[in-house]
Amino acid sequence: MEVPLNFRNFTLSDMARVLAIDYGLKRTGLAVTDELQIFAFGLQTVATHDLERFLKTYVVENGIAGIVVGEPKRLNNEPTDATAAINLFVTKLGKLFPEIPVYRIDERFTSSMASKAILASGIKKQERRNKALVDEVSATIILQSWLEQKELRNGNTR
Fold it and tell me: Which of 3.40.50.620, 3.30.420.140, 3.30.70.1400, 3.40.50.150 would CATH assign to domain 2-152?
């Protein structure tokens, strides 16, 4: 069930984890919330060809109640070359987990924000070149942004 980004009918339990996916053709970054949905944590990066198998296990074992997928857009709000692949992936998610809502969120600039955050963290140059780390941090930024938008729309100020 794909849910638009407005949260008017937001019914996701406040005591459940949410998973974020920064989908890529080669690698996919993942992040997850705590059970109170306050913080986003980088989970890992999975080879995209292994993603479905990973999700089938992870979602069930960890009680994931919602999935957030980054939606790439150009500056002019037009779709990118990756949009078609992500649309197919979101459709597949809906079939794999029909009871779990899938939320899409604009992911513009998350890769550059992730690279800057990694640089600012003081990680050694060799480790900063790790594209998998950038994907994981991007997923974390996507999820934290979603959490912040959810709080604003619901009028909560934790």
Answer: 3.30.420.140
